[in-house]
Amino acid sequence: MGNQFFYTNLLFIFYISCHYYVSVAQTENSTLSIKAVNLGNWLVIEGAMKPSLFDGITNKDLLDGTQVQFMSAKLQKYLCAEHGGGSIVVANRTKALSWETFRLWRVNESAFNFRVSNKQFVGLGNQAGANKLVAGSDLPGNMETFQIVRNDGDPKKIRIRAPTGLFLQAISETLVTADYEGSSWEDNDPSVFKMIILNHTILKGEYQLTNGYGPDRAPTIMQDHWNTYITEDDFRFISTNGLNAVRIPVGWWIAQDPTPPKPFVGGSLEILDNAFTWAQKYGLKVIVDLHAVPGSQNGQPHSATRDGYREWGDSYIPDTVATIDFLAERYADSETLLAIELMNEPQGVNLQSLKKYYQAGYEAVRNHSLSAYVIMSNPLDRDSRVLLQFAGAFSGVVIDVHYYNFFSDKFSKMNVQQNIDYIKKYRASDLSSLTTSYGPLVFVGKYCTST
Ligand SMILES: *[C@@H]1O[C@H](CO)[C@@H](O)[C@H](O)[C@H]1NC(C)=O
Ligand SMILES: *[C@@H]1O[C@H](CO)[C@@H](O)[C@H](O)[C@H]1NC(C)=O
Ligand SMILES: *[C@@H]1O[C@H](CO)[C@@H](O)[C@H](O)[C@H]1NC(C)=O
Ligand SMILES: *[C@@H]1O[C@H](CO)[C@@H](O)[C@H](O)[C@H]1NC(C)=O
Ligand SMILES: *[C@@H]1O[C@H](CO)[C@@H](O)[C@H](O)[C@H]1NC(C)=O
């Protein structure tokens, strides 16, 4: 797609999706000024971006990670995983809180696993009374796979088919079994449930998109998206409009291209190669940003999480470093490579684990390139100086801080001038506290404001 689309994208950047950034990195003796655009939603899906790619998914309101609740039509009570999991499933709650809320893992367009709040899965018990519903499996298998059958006239009215082929029924408040053979949709039928979809919990990231379309359709959808969302002409446009770099978010599965683990789709590596070719042609530098790491570093859809949990930690460090090693090796010899960002926006991760990873990731880059900058993203939930001393011990390291005048009532209540004043006062002083004579370089990787 050509310029017209890109303008739209740029508007998004400014006003909605925090996608434009300008940064100034200072060294001891000179100022290196990088003005770049973040090519978000290209090689890593960010569902808030338009146009939506999700509309063609069957049951698009039932994606991975979507949280649902089930109320028995007959009893008018919610299904509940007692104690949040590790125990039986009952139907005796009048209010739905976390024990009554189930996260979907999508198996196909109609089959799902139900993850309860202690992270276990609902399944059929395997002892006597195998038809009884329990929530005690750490991993979902056949016995944890249920089909949601929606009523033709009312998609919120459902019945749940167990792996045995029979339907669930709430016989009484304390007895939920998987042995119903009828087919009635009457409200007093024990197999009929009202499904409440917590629509603010719907995640729209790469996992949801590729798994939503499934292995038959996802490859075509992704390839079309990669080929049209950003094109060579956009690189020309960026370069002729005063910018000198692009930041390209990539996902960990790119290192296993062309056959990444499901549901991810191969082919993005060739697109990244194209991006380097185009960048070189138009005199732009490239920042490769590892935006989605295995396990998810923040639980956000753009980290390619399946269901919103942040799992990244020590056990994921080797795989994450291997991804950096792969990227550094592949692009180190390109003079277009400006920097590799080791991880985008960690949030809620253990700081010691993060430092351990940053140290190893730094070494992986330096093993292949002495000139590429290594960017360390500051944890979103920490003070912006938390890595200052640590990062200052390396050479060619940049701290990336993201300033969002957004996602908070505080900013929407302020008018335009107050927002601008806030940046001049608080953001500027925060930035200057980061800029020390012998410290690391600093980079504002993303900023945005709502107007
Ligand atoms: C920066 O300037 C100082 C003092 O002028 C000089 O000693 C040092 O070598 C310079 N550093 C670089 C990286 O050019
Ligand atoms: C629901 O049933 C379980 C199992 O019998 C019981 O332990 C729990 O107290 C009941 N809760 C309510 C609110 O009735
Ligand atoms: C979805 O998966 C279920 C359970 O594995 C299977 O019975 C069903 O046929 C599948 N449906 C489709 C449309 O593939
Ligand atoms: C989310 O659910 C609420 C309440 O059920 C409904 O009013 C709203 O329209 C829904 N929003 C979307 C985007 O479906
Ligand atoms: C860097 O290269 C050395 C020598 O090949 C190797 O032993 C080490 O594991 C590499 N470090 C990383 C982090 O990849």
From TrEMBL:
Ranges for domain Glycoside hydrolase family come to 222-447
Query: Which GO biological process entries does UniProt record here?
Result: actin filament bundle assembly; cell migration; establishment or maintenance of cell polarity; polysaccharide catabolic process
Q: Which UniProt keywords apply?
A: Glycosidase, Hydrolase, Signal
| Cleavable signal peptide | 1-25
Question: Which CDD domains does the protein's record reference?
Answer: beta-trefoil_FSCN-like (cd00257)
Q: Per the record, GO CC terms?
A: actin cytoskeleton; cytoplasm
Q: Does the keyword Signal apply?
A: yes
Q: Would the keyword Signal be found if you checked this record's keyword annotation? A: yes
Describe the location of the DUF7910 domain by residue ranges: 59-197
User: Tell me, what is one Gene Ontology molecular-function annotation carried by this entry?
Assistant: actin filament binding
> Family, per the entry?
Belongs to the glycosyl hydrolase 5 (cellulase A) family.
What's the name of the protein? Uncharacterized protein
Q: Which organism is it from?
A: Lotus japonicus (Lotus corniculatus var. japonicus)
Taxonomy, top ranks, is: Eukaryota, Viridiplantae, Streptophyta, Embryophyta, Tracheophyta
